[in-house]
């Protein structure tokens, strides 16, 4: 999922790790998103890859010991002032330990000392070097001092050892760095539940009733909320491997299961979010209380088979006709306790004359705070990468336009933030 980072300035520090080739992909992801990327290399990094490689990937000159200049901005002070965010990826154990102690014997470290914005560090080292108590202590020290650590992966390493130490996936580094630039105080530390996808109501062990919902709008909302800093719980029937790993996901199948998890997730959301201070000190537990939100983007089945069968029903047993007995499912938005939360429903209609009025009626009928209305032309309107939404409230209708779903999700969040009168 591509994020719009136009106008953002990212400084990428690379150190001497075999994982440095992944830093090229990280740089390309940012460039593709519209950001300007500058790279600073340690001498050890240049033993693996030449500066020319990063210049080709970013279209920008690279800062090295040989290119540093005090007659231009190509120096560790001016580049630090230029950047919105500073990402060190890969960061070797040597770099991590020096950074925690304020040692600055390479340009990568010198920039870190002079930089006053969001600093992110993505470790990449042998398992034993990461697990060494010096490195563990350094990582804790950096975390206490507001450096964001992008946790390494557990896998087979280049040295042949297996364990934690491999550089995080480039896509995850991309997400976490983007979040550092796009956080919004309104959504930070706010619990949000998002549902997505079409439920699958089982007929037997191999068949089910469902709909054309792709779940893309739900994923876009969950991603946008994560990037704004929310604590997101995403409940969906669809695969979600391409979501940020820090989003808490719950896999469900049918309407009954989704109802159960929505109720439970709202109960947890109402507790609030643990403050950073309470997690890092011996102070009494302190909860940050912000009104939680529910975005009900899932296409929940209205009816389900009354009697789901075990095993596989045989065609010759059913005959030439098959009459199904269906029963109405629980209306999740109608039935849940909406006290203390803000709810935004989603309504897809195919009637151009009365569709918007039908969507508007949800506010009163189901007691929701807002509705995202989407007028569909036919079943091919499902699963597209773009959408058009009109955001409806009691006394307003805001046309958010026809946009890529992630861009549209950010607009939905902007309108939804106006629903919380306590903010």
Key descriptive features of the protein:
423 residues, alpha/beta, Rossmann fold, 2 domains, 8-stranded mixed sheet, 6-stranded parallel sheet, 15 helices, 33% helix, 24% strand
State which percent range the strand residues make up. Answer: 15-25%
Low-pLDDT regions: none
- Side-by-side strand order of the widest sheet: 13-12-9-16-19-20-21-22
| CATH topology type of the largest domain | Rossmann fold
What is the CA-based Rg, rounded?
A: 25 Å
CATH superfamily of the largest domain: CoaB-like
- How many angstroms separate the termini? 30 Å
Total domain units? 2
What is the molecular shape? elongated
Helix tally? 15
Q: Architecture of the largest domain, CATH level 2?
A: 3-Layer(aba) Sandwich
Helix content: 25-40%
Q: Given the helix and strand composition, which structural class is it?
A: alpha/beta
- Strand elements, count: 22
- Mean pLDDT metric: 91
Could you explain how this protein is built, in words?
With 423 residues, this protein is α/β, with parallel strands linked by helices. Strand 2 (36-41), helix 2 and strand 3 form a beta-alpha-beta unit. The two termini are 30 Å apart. The strands form 6 sheets. Strands 13-12-9-16-19-20-21-22 form an 8-stranded mixed beta sheet, sandwiched between helices. Strands 3-2-1-4-5-6 form a 6-stranded parallel beta sheet, sandwiched between helices. It has 2 domains: 9-181, 3-Layer(aba) Sandwich (Rossmann fold); 184-417, Rossmann fold, CATH 3.40.50. The model has no long low-confidence stretch (mean pLDDT 91). It has 15 helices and 22 strands.
């Amino acid at each position: 999922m591509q994020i719009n980072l136009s106008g953002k300035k990212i400084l990428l520090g690379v150190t001497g790790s075999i994982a440095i080739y992944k830093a090229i992909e990280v740089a390309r992801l940012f460039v593709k998103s519209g950001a300007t990327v500058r790279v600073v290399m340690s001498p050890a990094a240049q033993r693996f890859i030449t500066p020319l490689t990063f210049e080709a990937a970013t279209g920008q000159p690279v800062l090295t010991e040989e290119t540093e200049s005090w007659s231009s901005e190509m120096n560790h002070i001016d580049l630090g002032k230029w950047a919105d965010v500073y990402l060190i990826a890969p960061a070797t154990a040597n770099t991590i330990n020096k950074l925690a102690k304020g040692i600055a014997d390479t340009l990568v470290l010198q920039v870190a000392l002079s930089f006053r914005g969001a600093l992110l560090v993505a470790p990449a080292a042998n398992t034993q070097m990461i697990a060494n108590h010096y490195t563990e202590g350094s990582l804790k020290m950096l975390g206490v001092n507001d450096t964001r650590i992008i946790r390494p992966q557990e896998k087979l390493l280049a040295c042949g050892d297996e364990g934690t130490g491999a550089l995080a996936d480039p896509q995850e580094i991309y997400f976490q760095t983007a979040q550092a630039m796009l956080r919004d105080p309104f959504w930070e530390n706010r619990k949000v539940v998002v549902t997505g996808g079409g439920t699958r109501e089982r007929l037997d062990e191999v068949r089910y009733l469902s709909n054309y919902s792709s779940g893309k709008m739900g994923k876009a909302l969950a991603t946008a909320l994560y990037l704004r800093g929310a604590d997101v719980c995403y409940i969906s029937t669809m695969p979600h491997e391409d979501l940020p790993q820090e989003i808490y996901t719950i896999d469900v199948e049918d309407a009954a299961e989704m109802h159960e998890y929505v109720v439970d997730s709202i109960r947890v959301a109402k507790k609030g979010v643990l403050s950073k201070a309470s997690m890092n000190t011996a102070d009494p537990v302190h909860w940050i209380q912000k009104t939680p939100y529910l975005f009900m983007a899932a296409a929940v089945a209205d009816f389900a088979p009354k009697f789901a069968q075990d095993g596989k029903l045989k065609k010759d047993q059913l005959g030439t006709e098959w009459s199904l007995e269906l029963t109405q499912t629980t209306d999740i938005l109608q039935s849940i306790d909406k006290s203390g939360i803000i709810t935004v429903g989603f309504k897809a209609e195919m009637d151009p004359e009365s569709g918007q009025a039908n969507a508007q009626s949800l506010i009163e009928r189901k007691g929701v705070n807002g509705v995202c209305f989407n007028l569909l032309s036919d079943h091919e309107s499902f699963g597209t990468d773009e959408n058009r939404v009109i955001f409806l409230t009691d006394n307003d209708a805001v046309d958010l336009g026809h946009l890529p779903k992630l861009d549209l999700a950010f607009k939905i969040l902007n309108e939804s933030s106006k629903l919380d009168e306590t903010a």
